[in-house]
Structure formats: structure tokens, C-alpha cells
Amino acid sequence: MPEEVTEDIIKKLRVNQFIKAPQVRLVGEKGEQLGIMPLAQAQETARKQGLDLVEVAPNATPPVCRILDYGKFKYEQEKKEQEARRHQRKASLLREIRLRPKIGDHDFDAKSRTARKLLSEGAKVKVSVMFRGREITHPELGWQLLQRMIETLKDIAVLDRQAVMEGRRMDIMLAPIPAGKAKPKEEPEKEEVKQA
Questions:
Q1: Does residue 77 fall inside a structural domain?
Q2: CA nearest 112: which of 131, 98, 92, 122?
Q3: Is residue 195 part of a domain?
Q4: Entry pTM
Q5: How far is Cα 95 from Cα 106, in angstroms, rounded to an integer?
Q6: C-beta of residue 104 within 8 angstroms of C-beta of residue 90
């Protein structure tokens, strides 16, 4: 093991010469109990095997030390932490989609596709209609637009908060339908051909 050991590693686990206890309970590389012995003897045993002596349970009496390859151990710990972070579900994110009352059909479709993608990733979506100038005198246009968005996304989202007018904005909150409760997209019914 290199002589330059950073302070943060020392604080986490004591290794080799940084172990302070006079006697330790030694655990071998494969997990076998080697008994209680003086620190110097434990360090010598680890050195003969070409491995490190790591204090794994400093609060035990006597402290428990294990013989292992410390670099490999740190690498495996970091990989486990990365894997845990990757699988950890993020607290429900809140994303926002902004619309204008005079939005075109194609632009509305693009915004609804974006909202659908965000909802499928598990994020909550706040859909806002922003009014400028005299548009504020027709809030019903914004309400109709929000209703249209709800109708478009009803197969993967539920309304989390009703339409609210805040200043020059009207918005709703959509949340993804919990897994297992999602409704399949309805297919248009096919008419049966009647034979005469």
C-alpha cells in the first residue's frame, strides 16, 4: 500500500500503521477467525501475505481487523455505492411545460409529446399557460387548453392539482399513473361486417 494515505480515508477506516489498538481480533482474507493477537503480530501476518490490515470494527473490544487488499476493497465499495445511486429512485421531479393561449396544433402536439416523455420517466409535470397583454381578459382560452392537455395525456397521467390562476399564469399539475394501474391506449372499435 502506498505511504501517502489521505486524511479522509484514515477517518473512514484505519489501515496498517494507523491502527492504534494494542490488541486486535484478526479475521483472515477468506473470513476465517485467526484469534486475538498483538497489533504488531497482526501487521506482520498481513505483510507476509502481501495484503493490508484494515480495522473494520473499531468500537468492538478488542477492535476487529481484517486482512485484505485495501485498494481492491475501496474499488468494490465505490462500485457498490455507484450501483446503489443508479438504482435509487429520484424524489419525484417537477418539470414544467409552458404554453401560450394562441399555440398552434403542431406546437401543442410537440408539447404534449414532451409531457408524455417526462411522465413516463416518473416526473410530475406542471403545465402552465402564460398570458401576455390583453390575453388575460380571456382566461377561458387557457382553461380549454389545459383541459385539452389533460384529455391528451389521460392514459398515462392523473390530475394532481386543478387549474389555478396565479397572476398572469394558469397551471395544472399532472402526476404519472402508478405502475400497474396504467390504462392501455384505447383502440378504435372495428365494426363487424354483417353478411346478408
A1: no
A2: 98
A3: no
A4: 0.49
A5: 21
A6: no
